[in-house]
Amino acid sequence: MRTFIDRSILATMIIGLLFVAACAKRPVATVREAPPAPAPPPAAPPPAPAPAPAAPAPPPVVAPAPPPAPRPAPPKEYVANDNLKPVHFAFDKADIRPADAKILDASAKWLAANPNQILLIEGHCDERGTEAYNLALGDKRAKSAMNYLVAQGVQGDRITLVSFGEERPVCREQNEACWSKNRRDMFLVKEK
Fold it and tell me: What domains can be seen in the chain, in order of their start residue?
């Protein structure tokens, strides 16, 4: 008996749902008519005959151009100076060698005689080693040169350091003679 009642309730619910679904409003689809096509434009009138050539018009009077405004001075950039020679380093080293110490002594004298110049020291490496290692080594080399110059009396606040690692070689051959040229510090200056 229980299953009969359960089935009756289930059948009644299904019939009720079908009834409700059948009575639901369906949306009415509206069809829009396309607007009528525009009327074709009237035919263009025939071109008017060209007027007879008139006497040539006098050239327009051009006012003289005002003088150009003065340009601002370009920003000062670091430039190489023949008095500041590069120094070179042994493989994987940042120590100042005796021959390079003489070059730095001459650079310190020139910087002392030109106090209006500020110095950029670029540290460079050869291509051997990782990029990160060479950037760090180039920085050590630039700091070595800076410390030497400061010990010779150059003010540290006049010096800026940058490491290019292996990014700017002066020689691209694959031999020791070339690599030794790339292991260097370069010195550039600009006015304060």
Answer: 79-191 (3.30.1330.60)
